[in-house]
Amino acid sequence: MARSALLNVMVQAAMKAGRKLSRDFGEVESLQVSVKGPGDFVTNADKEAEKIIYQELSKARPEIGFLMEEGGVIKGKDPQNRWIVDPVDGTTNFMHSIPIFGISIALEREGQIVAGVVYNPAMDELYTAEKGKGAFMNDRRLRVANRKEMLESVFTTGIPHLGRPAHKDFLEQQRKVMLNSAGIRRFGAASLDLCYVAAGRVDGFWETGLQPWDMAAGIIMVREAGGYVTDLDDGHDMFGTTTIIAGNETIRKKLLATLKA
Fold it and tell me: What is the second-level CATH architecture of the domain 150-260?
């Protein structure tokens, strides 16, 4: 698979940060039994991974600014482009030695996501996509699943913890989907949930309360794999509404109708 120079830069940054996270991930289990606990260590792992990504991308494209989970907004000289970065999506999984977490890097151009990389170093799965060029996992072309019936489909979502906003609303959404599907999974990393939709591992995904860095790279992954992504108002303001729903065209529509019923 031939990648553009820009996508190669993103891949190199993700994999370099991934090597650091892989070493850190090997230390997490021993930290679980320490008095201090893993919290500070994980925070530092996030920051170190983000620093690596920032340095690599800035070195290659110094004019482009950033929106990052840890570092916030860093304006660049190029007003049309920005990197959207989540150094560790799935921090809770990382913290508990669960190997489902990812580095997410997207390039947004004039409000549209044009390239994305999601890398899970624990499983050595590299997801890449460029607008108009398809989506891939470790150089294998991805396509969304082609199921048409909710009752045959498996969905992923994110579950808000008790006491967080929209918990009651989510329980009602979960009830509706449970009654009309083959199952629900909760992996704990939205970027990977969207990659799994792109790969056809699951049929659809929905979640509320997400930030741009949680979903930016995953959005283009699904679209380039032949899927559809909208917000829960059936529009395209995922960042503004902080909501997202994805799947093939038929399943996305049916899942949205189920949630709205």
Answer: 3-Layer(aba) Sandwich (3.40)
Q: What is the pLDDT of residue 38?
A: 54
Domain covering 5-141 assigned CATH 3.30.540.10 in the classification: yes
SS (H, E, C) the chain: CCCCHHHHHHHHHHHHHHHHHHHHHHHHHHHCCCCCCCHHHHHHHHHHHHHHHHHHHHHHCCCEEEEECCCEEECCCEEEEEEEEEEEECHHHHHCCCCCCEEEEEEEECCEEEEEEEEECCCCEEEEEECCCEEEECCEECCCCCCCCHHHCEEEECCCCCCCCCHHHHHHHHHHHHCCCCEEECCCCHHHHHHHHHCCCCCEEEEECCCHHHHHHHHHHHHHCCCEEECCCCCCCHHHHCEEEEECHHHHHHHHHHHHC
- Asked if the model's pLDDT at residue 101 lies above 80, the reply is yes
1-50 pLDDT, tens digit each = 678 999 999 999 999 999 999 988 878 766 654 444 555 556 788 899 99
Q: 203 is written with which tokens?
A: 């049929």
Do 239 and 230 contact (CB within 8 A), yes or no? no
